[in-house]
Amino acid sequence: MVLSDGGDPVRTERGPADSRAASPDAARSPAAVRRADRRAGRVTGGTRELEQRLADLLRGGLAAADRPGNGLWEETAARMVDAQAPGLAARVRELGALPASGAGWPARLLEECALLHLLDSAWLGLDRLPAPLAATVRTRVGLTASPEGPAVRDRWLVLAQYDTPEGRIVTRRIWLYGGESGRTALVLSYGAPGRVPAQTLPVGSVIDAEVTPYPGGGRLRVELGARFADPVCTAVPPPGVTPAGAVGAYGRALRDDPWLEAWPVTLDGVIPAPSGDGWQLIDPGDGSALPIAPRALSRPGLWKLVALSGGSPLTVFGECGHRGFDPIAAWSPEPSGEGGPVALV
Predict the structure, then answer these.
(1) So what's the pLDDT on residue 28?
(2) What is the pLDDT of residues 209-256, one digit of tens each?
(3) 109 to each of 8, 57, 65, how far by Cα in Å?
(4) Strands (E), the chain
(5) CA distances from 219 to 136, 222, 232 (A)
(6) CA separation (Å) from 238 to 100, 155, 235, 245?
(7) pLDDT at residue 263 above 80?
(8) 14 in Cβ contact with 21 (< 8 Å)
(9) Is the pLDDT reported for residue 12 higher than 60?
(10) DSSP 55-85
């Protein structure tokens, strides 16, 4: 989606995040520079207002966030939309849902407030950041970007494809793994209200194609380019790591993107096993384990995963984050397994 920069200019104090820092492509024309300049001013004004509201919340105490009928978060999110910072608006709405998230919500709210403060501070000091981190901040705030850099040609294994509703639109996520580059990539496409996204790829197939990465930490998101052959089906999963290796990969990714919720990894040779009120994936070799993320516990995919394993080690692709591991696809532990990955979402 592309957000319009229409409307009258908003007169705000300019911060370090000037038009060129906000949009490196803006120098293509004087009109584009002026539009980017106006938007940067709006975003800077929004981040300063958000900083003040976070300070007021912490000064008054987190208990105020749990008051019935408290419209603070929705009002603040609306202000961030007015500031043309949809990324900030989305994070503010997530804050509003935390008081109803169960025991321990004050600690989670404080964590998210800290991350939001970090994002505000990063935007206000954008010109002092390294270029890759600055690109990540622009993306997190909600500025649009275009693919850049040389295209990467590889034989891409289609790991998973699934749709998630996000407001009035539907977002389709397609995960790819490059057999030669060893790179995991994400293709995003969107469907208008009432329509499914047009982009689709056969899961479990290998496509010889080029992809071009978008800027930002980790450079996970890519645009699918030219294809050079018809897809070829395969039941061979990508190489995997241990649960300990997955945690290490997520930790390294956080250096490039401190706001990263999770990082895509493939676990090899793990067994799903109950653990207290939840489940975990255990490596019988080194004994390391990862808890399955709470949001995955209520999905039917968990029982697909348990049935597919039958107590035997198997390969699982998913996202490893601070809440645990969210399984997305799995491969049969049987050497003769056919049909490619089993969808878990």
Answers:
(1) 60
(2) 999 999 887 789 999 999 999 999 998 999 999 999 999 999 999 998
(3) 35, 11, 9
(4) 152-166, 169-178, 184-191, 205-213, 221-227, 232-233, 262-275, 278-282, 289-291, 314-321, 324-331, 342-343
(5) 9, 7, 26
(6) 39, 12, 10, 15
(7) yes
(8) no
(9) no
(10) HHHHHH-GGGGGSTT--HHHHHHHHHHHTT-
